[in-house]
TrEMBL record:
<comment type="subunit">
    <text>Homotetramer.</text>
</comment>
<dbReference type="GO" id="GO:0006241">
    <property type="term" value="P:CTP biosynthetic process"/>
</dbReference>
<dbReference type="InterPro" id="IPR036850">
    <property type="entry name" value="NDK-like_dom_sf"/>
</dbReference>
<keyword id="KW-0479">Metal-binding</keyword>
<dbReference type="InterPro" id="IPR023005">
    <property type="entry name" value="Nucleoside_diP_kinase_AS"/>
</dbReference>
<feature type="binding site">
    <location>
        <position position="11"/>
    </location>
    <ligand>
        <name>ATP</name>
    </ligand>
</feature>
<keyword id="KW-0546">Nucleotide metabolism</keyword>
<dbReference type="GO" id="GO:0046872">
    <property type="term" value="F:metal ion binding"/>
</dbReference>
<comment type="function">
    <text>Major role in the synthesis of nucleoside triphosphates other than ATP. The ATP gamma phosphate is transferred to the NDP beta phosphate via a ping-pong mechanism, using a phosphorylated active-site intermediate.</text>
</comment>
<keyword id="KW-0597">Phosphoprotein</keyword>
<dbReference type="GO" id="GO:0005524">
    <property type="term" value="F:ATP binding"/>
</dbReference>
<keyword id="KW-0418">Kinase</keyword>
<keyword id="KW-0460">Magnesium</keyword>
<dbReference type="Pfam" id="PF00334">
    <property type="entry name" value="NDK"/>
</dbReference>
<keyword id="KW-0067">ATP-binding</keyword>
<feature type="domain" description="Nucleoside diphosphate kinase-like">
    <location>
        <begin position="3"/>
        <end position="140"/>
    </location>
</feature>
<dbReference type="GO" id="GO:0006183">
    <property type="term" value="P:GTP biosynthetic process"/>
</dbReference>
Length: 140
């Protein structure tokens, strides 16, 4: 297995409930290392651009509204098999379907307010990291 980097977000529903540390601890305990991190309040344009792949979905408006409703922690995580590992630790998109012990099972409120984002493949991880970070902001 290779050391990979993935892109992660702690979404506004979680930062509003002061869960930045609790969620980061779950990621770290799973063997993922935070090699870049910043707190942003995304603009409508940034949220629409980041989630452009979903622009034709019925939930797109709600998604952009939720993501611009408060601060988000954007992070780069590094570790063995980081992309898949992060998706496992996050749990299913709908917390009702998420496994016990996952971030979404433990902390998410609903499918729309599901506390975290994680890249789903090497290509999207590279794109998403680049969307939020310059190379000099990532310190492994
Ligand atoms: P994931 O975040 O697990 O990769 P998707 O890429 O399918 O899930 O969706 C992106 C985000 O859009 C989800 O995390 C969630 O915040 C939101 N979303 C997805 N499906 C719905 C839905 N049916 N209703 C409301 N929001 C949704
Ligand atoms: Mg996704």
């Amino acid at each position: 297995m290779a050391i990979e980097r993935t892109f992660s977000m702690i979404k506004p529903d979680a930062t509003k409930r002061n869960l930045t540390g609790a969620i980061t601890k779950i990621l770290e305990d799973a063997g993922l290392r935070v090699v870049a991190s910043k707190r942003v309040w995304m603009s409508k344009r940034e949220a629409e651009g980041f989630y452009a792949v979903h622009k034709d979905r019925a939930f797109f408006g709600e998604l952009v509204e939720t993501m611009t409703s408060g601060p988000t922690i954007v992070q780069v995580l590094e570790g063995e098999n980081a992309i898949l590992k992060n998706r496992e630790v996050m749990g299913a998109t709908n917390p009702a379907n998420a496994d016990e012990g996952t971030i979404r099972k433990t902390h998410a409120l609903s499918i729309g307010e599901n506390s975290v984002h994680g890249s789903d493949a090497p290509e999207t991880a590279a794109q998403e990291i680049k969307y939020w970070f310059s190379d000099t902001e990532i310190v492994g």
